[in-house]
Amino acid sequence: MYVxxxxxxxxSDGAQxxxxxxxxxxxxxxxxxxxxxxxxxCGVEHLWNATPRAALQADKEGWRQLNLIAxxxxxxxxxxxxxxxxxxxxxxxxxxxDALLREQQNHRRQRAEAIAGKLDAVGTIGVRDYLAALPAxxxxxxxxxxxxxxxxxxxxxxxxxxxxxxxxGKAYVAATWPSLDRAVSAIQSTGGIAVLxxxxxxxxxxxxxxxxxxxxxxxxxxxxxxxxxxxxxxSKKRLLELANEHALYHSCGSDFHxxxxxxxxxxxxxxxxxxxxxxxIWEHPRWHSIVxxxxxxxxxxxxxxxx
Length: 307
Ligand code: AMP
Ligand code: MN
Ligand code: MN
Ligand code: MN
Known about the structure:
CATH topology of the largest domain: TIM Barrel
CATH superfamily of the largest domain: Metal-dependent hydrolases
Bound molecules: adenosine monophosphate, manganese (II) ion
CATH class of the largest domain: Alpha Beta
Oligomer: single chain
Radius of gyration: 20 Å
Number of strands: 8
Number of helices: 10
Shape: globular
Strand content: 15-25%
Distance between the termini: 29 Å
Order of helices and strands: EHEHEEHHHHHEHEHEHE
Largest sheet: 8 strands, mixed
CATH architecture of the largest domain: Alpha-Beta Barrel
């Protein structure tokens, strides 16, 4: 079992195509990959259309098999704080999830327009054309940060967030996200599993984080990420304790966005120790049905190189 249950394509703020993610996952020997773009399913739908549902499984003995899982990462609100919830979905479309994602994408477009207005006001022109040329369905501040770097306005993305897009930036526009409860319910409506994303990245004290996890569980959340890129061992241990305290399954993923940030790669995160895998998400009673609702791709075995 080698899973990556959190990554992004260029349909949200990732740099790569969904096809790249699939081939990188096969190359790295992953067994399961969930594409979890921010607030949109376009990348998943694209892969689903390109991949026949019933591949010729029996004929592929010895071939590498990669299970693709439909995923999404929903931005939502908990007591005024932005929280991200990953959904590992069974059905791709339900009225509840469709409505939520449509609202999110509209809100993201309106927010981008409001940010563009603020950039106009400080004489930084061109962001609308830049955004219109992107393949992204979910527009994020990350795209606008890319524009600020590409146009020579900022030296790098960190500076773009600090001077323009972050809370104290010149072009900051607050987002209004749906409640945590609504995000979890929309994921549940598909028969999927709601996973609390990167819990150590929120500005919360230990006790507040515990309260978030408790509220997430009460809302119907069933898993949380306990391992991801750049997570130090102390925080990882703490997250495992919290997951066990709140009876949440353990999930993990790279949150891969781009090859440009050298510290992330698909499948790159500290693997779960065997002692922690009894509560791994693949032990969840609905895991199998979620995987079988996905797609499977095959690749020939990697030839041993001749020494
Ligand atoms: P949004 O969801 O539109 O608020 O955009 C947030 C996205 O921007 C996140 O998912 C990250 O990928 C990216 N991001 C947030 N903060 C930073 C930062 N300081 N530097 C670079 N990227 C960031
Ligand atoms: Mn992102
Ligand atoms: Mn996130
Ligand atoms: Mn993410």
